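Hi L.,

As promised, SsuA/THI5-like domain-containing protein:
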Amino acid sequence: MLKSIARILLGGTLAATAAITAAQAADKVVYQLDWLPGGDKAPIYVCINKGFCADAGLEVSIESGRGSSEAITKMATGVSDIGSAGIGALMAAKAGEGVPVTAVYSIFNKGPHAFYTIKGTMETIEDVKGKTVATSPFTESNVYLPLVLADIGLTEADITLTKTDPGALGPMLMTGGTEVIIAWLTDVARYTGQAKEAGKELTILPWSAAGLELYSASLLASDKFLTERPDVARRFIAAFKKSVEFAKDNPREAAEAVAAIVPELSVENVEGSWKDASVLVFNEVTEKDGLGALEASRLAATWERVSAAQGLDPAKLDPESVVDRSFMPGN
């Protein structure tokens, strides 16, 4: 009897020791957000909450962010190892300063930018002419607005543009304070809900309909991280890809994973946001090129748009210098 108890105790001790050893052996990775937590960021929370990161031998912590430029700076300075940010912002930073950060995986293979308006106000993007348009002061969409207007034969003089706090955009639209707002396709559920409460319906016009085809949010990584810990980087990217696929097939569980780590967010809102964002991840571009791919011609087209939008010399950057595809699963 005593020997049996001893064996049980020894087994428990060995199991606990093994668990502690495994935890100690896990490679630490700091993941950088480019904005606040939400449904569009679901995969990294899935990776942590559902154990994909742990299964890959990784202990991942999340660093908050306030825009792509800040996120890139944190990766460039070693505060974070890898994270999400706009590849357009990376291209501009590479062209200007040669930042030591590289894109390794595409998250949004389409731009998220769109016009939102009350149904009956606009039928096509061209109908924005003469309208009052409200936007956030800091959104990346503002960079591309002149290009979109030029694509449809307009300039900013053809609209009345105002900038306001992001939280005021929805109320302004619903109360008639503006005819159009500029917002991301990741916010369809939120603004649709506000419209429903106001007894209204929305018309949403993606800028891709005007020809703004480009890569957007991507996984970027510190060059130091890629150089000094390439195996960790590969394991992380493979786990992240699994998490994206899980979120696609299990949107409710993905939302619950986010809310479990960020309890101030509601599961319903997160689920709606992820479903909105997922059309930028899974679409005809994905079917053609593959999940996470950074295809050469689309990458070149993205740089063409970014350089034009920011007044940069296109010759200052080879878009291929911004990416490293060798870390993609299967490579």
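The radius of gyration is 22 Å.

Thanks again for sending the construct details.

K.
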